[in-house]
Design brief:
GO molecular function: tRNA threonylcarbamoyladenosine dehydratase; ubiquitin-like modifier activating enzyme activity
Helix content: 25-40%
Protein name: tRNA threonylcarbamoyladenosine dehydratase
Structural class: alpha/beta
InterPro entries: ThiF/MoeB/HesA, ThiF_NAD_FAD-bd, Ubiquitin-activating_enz
Radius of gyration: 17 Å
Largest sheet: 7 strands, mixed
Order of helices and strands: HEHEHEHEHEEHEEEH
Strand content: 15-25%
Shape: globular
Distance between the termini: 29 Å
Domain THIF-type NAD/FAD binding fold: 13-234
Length: 241
């Protein structure tokens, strides 16, 4: 059977050579929440041949409004395990590696040192591990796209893709730029962000678990649109490489 039969519609756009190129690529997706779960699925559906997905979290009832792995029937289940099963159901030939952990700085650096990735997708919503991933990926020379803040926003037409130094109207992007500059990093990767200002009244404080002290309310479609945008960067860049 033709392994690319399920990608016949994609082949009409990228050609057989494009499918063959994507089948040779290894993409790392860190964070499988509202943004990362959709990014991972779209990358898989585009024909990436190998993926590593990382998330140490389990499905919470509050995830059901926006996260691909979340339903009221699988609360408490590992997001990474659920995504593994789903991605393999889309492409049984996908070579997939699953890490069910929240990676601290040392394991993150070790992962990037011991593996070879063709693209890194940062869908982490906590500042410290996000910075570590970005810094480590750039140090290794990996192309990376980083998702900025999708919370508190409702207009998908305001989503933009730009070099990190050109982001604006995004609190998370501002923090990322600020702290990366202290590390001597001012550019070098693409960011997905929204120029829409967040609804301040939707902000809530959290327990600080996994480096996260606050969060904005979210709509079902905004994180998915961010994930779609991240996937588009990855696939288009890989095809152009």
């Amino acid at each position: 059977m033709n392994d690319f039969a399920w990608l016949s519609r994609t082949e009409l756009i990228v050609g057989r050579s494009g499918l063959e190129k994507l089948a040779q690529k290894h993409v790392l997706v860190v964070g499988l929440g509202g943004v990362g779960s959709f990014a991972a699925e779209f990358i898989c559906r585009s024909g990436a041949g190998e993926m590593t997905i990382i998330d140490g979290d389990t499905v919470d009832i509050s995830n059901c409004n926006r996260q691909l792995p979340a339903t009221q029937k699988n609360v408490g289940q590992s997001k990474a395990e659920w995504m593994e099963e789903r991605l393999l159901s889309i492409n049984p030939n996908l070579k997939i590696h699953v890490i069910k952990e929240f990676l601290n700085p040392e394991p993150m650096n070790e992962l990037l040192e011991k593996n070879r990735f063709d693209y890194v997708v940062d869908c982490i919503d906590s500042i410290t591990p996000k910075l570590v991933l970005i810094q480590s990926a750039l140090h290794k020379g990996y192309p990376i796209v980083s998702s900025m803040g999708a919370g508190g926003k409702v207009d998908p037409t305001k989503i933009r893709i730009a070099p990190i130094e050109e982001t604006y109207n995004c609190k998370l992007a501002r923090y990322v730029r600020k702290y990366l500059q202290r590390m001597g990093i001012r550019s070098g990767f693409k960011a997905v962000f929204s120029e829409e200002l967040p609804k301040k009244e939707s902000l809530m404080l959290t327990d600080g678990k996994n480096y996260k002290k606050s969060a904005y309310g979210t709509m079902s479609f905004l994180p998915a649109a961010f994930g779609c945008s991240c996937a588009s960067v990855v696939v288009n860049d890989l095809l152009a490489s």
